[in-house]
Every structure is written in C-alpha cells, then in structure tokens.
Amino acid sequence: MAWWRKHKDDDEWFADPTKQSEPDPDVQLVKLQASRTRWWRLVTWVTLLLAVYAAFTVSNTPTPATPKGVSLNETGKQAAYSITEQWLATGHPLGAQARVVSWDGATRTPTSGGAVYRHVLTVANGARWWRVAVAVNRDGTPIGYPNASPVAVPDTLTPDGTVGWSGTIKDAQGSDALSTLVTQWAQALTGSDADRLKVIMADPDPASVYQPLGLDGQFQSATVDRVAYADMGKVDKENQTSDRAFARVTISMTGRDNQPVQYGFDLLLADPDGTPRILAWGAPGDAPGLREYMNRWHGNLLDTASGTGQGSGPSPTPVDPSPAPSTN
Questions:
Q1: pTM greater than the 0.70 cutoff
Q2: Which of 82, 177, 186, 259 is the most exposed place for a label (fewest CB within 10 A)?
Q3: Residue 34: CA count within 13 A, CB half-sphere
Q4: What domains sit in the chain, N to C, each tagged with a CATH number?
Q5: Along the chain (328 residues), what's the average pLDDT of each consecutive run of 10 residues?
Q6: Cβ-contact 124, 101 below 8 angstroms
C-alpha cells in the first residue's frame, strides 16, 4: 500500500484534475517585467507626443503686440501742466480767462536723442475751446513752446432725439399711467423727501433707502420723450413686446435766476403696458446697462434740505456698459 500510495502521488495519471498547480515564480517575474516595459514605453511615447504638440503650439502662437494708446500716467505730466499755465498767464495768448480744463493724455515720440513725451491738454476761455500740445523731455524740460488748435463744440444744448438704445425690440407708446408715474418720481427725485422717493420706487426690500437730489430751483415738469420695449424680462415674440422697457425722460426746472434748466435721464421700467414701475435710472444712454434697484443708497442719507451731509454715503452702483442679459 505504501508503494501504491507513493506512485499515486508521483504519477500524473493519478493527479487530481481539480488541483491547481502553483505558478512558476521565474515565469511570473518575466511576465511582470514585460508588462511594465510595455506600459513604460507607452507612457514615454505619449509624453513625447504631448511635448512635441506643446512646443508646436507655443511656437505658432503669435505674440500679441503692445497696444499703442494714450497713457494716463506718463512722464512729465505735471511739467506739462505747469508749462501750459505759465504760457497762458504770460500775455494771455488764448484770452484773459483761459484756463486748463483737463489733461487728455500723452504719447511717447522717438527722437534722435531718445524720446519725448507729447502731452495734450484742453483749455477753455469761456467762449472757445482749445487743444494745447506740449512736448517735454524725460526731465520735464520743454523742447518747444506750446501748440494750440481750436476745438469745435456744438453751440446748442438741444438733444438729438433720434438716438435710441441697443438691446430693444421696438418702440413703445407711452401711456398716461407712465407719464403720471414719471412726474411723481421726478418730483421726489429732485426734492429732498427720501421717504417719498422710496414709496414711489416700490422696492420689495423694506430696508432699502433712496437718496433724493435736493436740487435748487422749482420743479416744472417731467416728459417722457421716448419708450422702447427691452429685449429682456418676459418677451412676447409674437407681438414683439416685453414686460421691461427703456424710457428717456426730461425734467424741467426753474433755477434760482428764473432761467429754465433741464435734466436728462434713462429709466428701466417694469410692466410698461400695465401698471408701470420704475426699477432704475441713469444718464441718457445708460438704459441697456441699468439693473433693477441699482440706485439703492448704501449709507447715511445726506441732508439735501440744508445742502450738508449728515453722514457719508457712496454713490449708487455705477452703470455697467455691457447690455443687460435677456431672460426670455
């Protein structure tokens, strides 16, 4: 029995078919090294291809040129101011009342000795406007006397009523309800009653505050000059209408000397064909950038009745010049 059992264990005819033979460690090592080698080669090729692609992309990307424009902080600005003021005061070449109104920038001009800085300033004398150019070295010394050229300005304040807005669908008809609302809003805005202005704005935030202008003079009227449906809010494409609209408004007042004074505004309106509401206001042309309730005052109200502030209060959020997004 011992001999049979020994040969049974050694003879493959007696081997158990369900028994798993242990793998040869040398064979497994060779397979592992081969698989690692294949993966390493693949990673190497991919890395090489990516590096070539990146180098090709960088070499073919054009280098953006430095934009040539007017510098707002150029060498010799103060010197140009001083030179122009002295020139205006010596002999009054542009009139006895001539004064520097603004500095409009400077450009760097190459010269045989390096570069000079050409500054441009606007000068007004009460009747005419001038553009004065002064060229100075890096140390501020002028290379010549100032140069002056006249500037043509419109001799009328009459607005161009044909200019509309971007981001509109079509013109709308102003209603009597809108005219009444605009008049009430204009009276509150130009006055000094902050509570009245807040009620007219109908802001859903009970803590909101609106700062009236407290303008000098007597309110006369407020007219709606133009209305257009805005391409925002709920848009009715079939009828080409919207529940948002832009309006241009003129407020007329009488100044201290009994002379008429006009103020212009753009308005963002809600429900222009129903019960209109004013959502925001800005200067003429601002309408596409107006946002709902952007005129909230964030700070202590100013004492507009006496012309002195009771506390500091920043100006309303500046108008974003980009068009308002459409929500249709």
A1: no
A2: 259
A3: 6
A4: 77-151 (3.10.450), 168-304 (3.10.450.540)
A5: 49 51 56 57 69 60 44 76 95 94 92 90 94 93 94 84 92 96 97 96 95 93 97 95 97 88 96 97 96 94 60 40 43
A6: yes
